[in-house]
Amino acid sequence: MYSAEFEYYRATSVAEAVELMRAHPGAKLLAGGHSLLPQMKLRVSQPAALVDISRAAELSGITLDGEMLRIGATTTHAALAASPVVSEHCAILSEAASLIGDQQVRNRGTIGGSLAHADPAADLPTVIVALGGTLTAASAAGPRDVLAGECFVDLFTTALTEGEVLTRVNVPAYGAGTGGAYAKHRHPASGYAVVGVAAIVTVSDGRCTRARLVVGGAQPNPVSASASEAALEGQPLNEATIAAAAAQVAQALPNPLSDHYASADYRRQLATVLARRALVTAAERAAER
Q1: 171: which strand partners?
Q2: Residue 56 DSSP one-character state
Q3: I want to staple 221 with a disulfide (CB 3.0 to 4.6 A). Which of 8, 37, 76, 152 is the partner?
């Protein structure tokens, strides 16, 4: 199918993108386009204008700023997966990026596009929530930061407001004794996560001092398995404690999504299995740091 007619504008800076969004209410930002363009062809989305930010150089790149990684919104999944800085300081993010779609998708898709689109089956929202990241957005009113855990509010819906341009993603670098892992059950047709689980643990003197366990794909937005996290803190990360914590993941999923591929009960079971796998791997990696 063909999209409805629209106007096209190319922004070369954040300031220009903000001005174009202000001048064209209802316009959509275009970066990689892997989610937006199919929606437009199906006429699920019919924006009157597109603002292309893919060539705004200030929106791309990865830097280590003290204990924080600053990632430009148009940084591609392939760049995240290949970055030695990300691999060294926040390996779970490069791991998740390497599992997205196929090589063509990773070459064009962007971290900002994935987060702003808020697909429940996307990989990066789950990981960014687990990391406790923040999203920096710019608008005519100025910049603001949004906690990732507060950004995803419903299916394909975020706390970003009309006219805001997501400019940067900020995530903390791993500290000593911290390890993370992302495990997913990949849909065989799309490569999206039927369920994906991000686990991050910090170990000191043989015991877990901090745990984050977030499930994606099972509900409209990423969900923190708080009971599982509480069960791990203060405990040694052995087979028994990890299995007990993973068994409590289902408490965080009161009403899982259900479709022709995976029922609600199947997603609950997947979340339990993947949580255990992710926690085991995260614990092993924490022990190596």
Answers
A1: 69
A2: -
A3: 152
Closest by CA to 94, choosing from 65, 123, 74, is 123
Tally the domains of the chain. Answer: 3
CA atoms within 13 A on the CB side of 283: 22
Q: Spell out the long-range contacts of 92-95 with Cβ–Cβ below 8 A and sequence spacing 24 or more.
A: 92/127, 92/130, 92/131, 92/180, 92/181, 92/182, 92/198, 92/200, 92/282, 93/69, 93/124, 93/127, 93/128, 93/131, 93/171, 95/180, 95/181, 95/182
Q: Looking at the structure, tell me whether residues 74 and 15 fall in a common domain.
A: no
Residues whose CB is less than 8 angstroms from the CB of residue 5 and which lie 6 or more positions away in sequence, other chains included: none
Q: Using 50, 70 and 90 to split pLDDT, how confident is the model at 275?
A: very high
- pLDDT value of position 161: 95
Q: Compute the distance between CA of residue 11 and CA of residue 261 in angstroms, rounded to an integer.
A: 40
Task: Give the pLDDT of residue 238.
Answer: 96
Which pLDDT belongs to residue 289?
A: 80
Q: What is the reported pLDDT for 2?
A: 87
Look up the CATH number of the domain holding residue 266: 3.30.390.50
How far, in Å, CA of 270 to CA of 234, rounded? 26
- Distance between CA 249 and CA 251 in Å, rounded? 5
